[in-house]
Amino acid sequence: MNKPTQHIVFLTPGFAESEADSTTIPVLQVFLKSIRKALPEAKLTLLAFQFPFTKKRYHWHGIEVIPLNGKNKRLRKLQTWRKAAKTLKKLHKIQKIDTIHSFWIGECARIGQKFVDKYKVNHVVTVMGQDASIKNSYGVYLENSNARLVTLCENHQKTLLKNYGFISTIIPWHLDVSDVPPLQQNTIDILGVGALNSVKNYSDFVDIIAVLAKTHPNLNVTIIGDGDQRNAIETKIKSLGLEDTITLLGTLPRNDVFQKMVQSNILLHTSHYESFGFVFLEALYSGMHIVSTNVGLAKASDKWKVCHEKMELIEACESLLSQKNVSKERVLLSSETETINAYLSLYHA
């Protein structure tokens, strides 16, 4: 008798609207492509609670995506949760679900745990961002449960334990190295990549560039990303006379981001918090140096200057800018095999 096909259902607030969408939670896209490759015979289904804003089911690289179309509307939240619970019940009836894999300690973990409690299936929860650092009410649904919690690095694990008391397994994200183009000669001195919001702290980024520009008049700086702080950042750039130094490119397709990375010398990252920092993996494999605050998987090395205050960030950038004719090389921090095998062990536990 043939063994039944494994069925894994992923629960996430949002997901790519099509295979052409490279900017919606890229780390999740990389991960799911690898899971699909590792489990070619398994049935993989994904429920997207809030976006994309559509009700039409579609397939994404061999995974069935079921959008619940919550549209991030508070008044639709209960309706979305009921729809999710009803959909899971139908999926389970058609083909038994073996594992629920929820992302973030949030609504997905709540609905996933309620389903798991009733149907006694496996539950994996990946803690993704500020859900570890800012305790929320959804955590109560995971207390005294059999859910297997995953954090992304040592800093992340410690933060979750401190705020929730939850024990977790560290499984770092991996990079799809085939996405990264060949290394090129640097045309950008300092690059910033990330949302223009208060957490990413681009106000300090601009202050640092203002100091460096005094001794490096031809400094070429680029920022990729957009967000609610864009107007404030633009105003600050103008007030400091840095319009010819800093270029704001807004949001770019993932391939275009990599093209900029392989042409850049330093990734300057002034963020107040990172659960992991996927951009760090991307930068190192793109041959860049990193100057960052002590967030996410930050670890000092020849290629990575980890700093604790603004003056240290300035000095680290100054030191790297003064180096001449330094050869570029790729650094790979975590492998696809390690990441996927660690998750497969949780799926089969």
From TrEMBL:
InterPro entries hit by this protein: Glyco_trans_1 (IPR001296)
Residues annotated as domain Glycosyl transferase family: 183-298
Taxonomy, superkingdom: Bacteria
Entry keywords, A to Z: Transferase
The keyword Cell membrane is assigned to this record: no
GO molecular function, one term: glycosyltransferase activity
UniProt entry tagged with the keyword Kinase: no
UniProt protein name: Glycosyltransferase involved in cell wall biosynthesis
Organism this protein belongs to: Kordia periserrulae
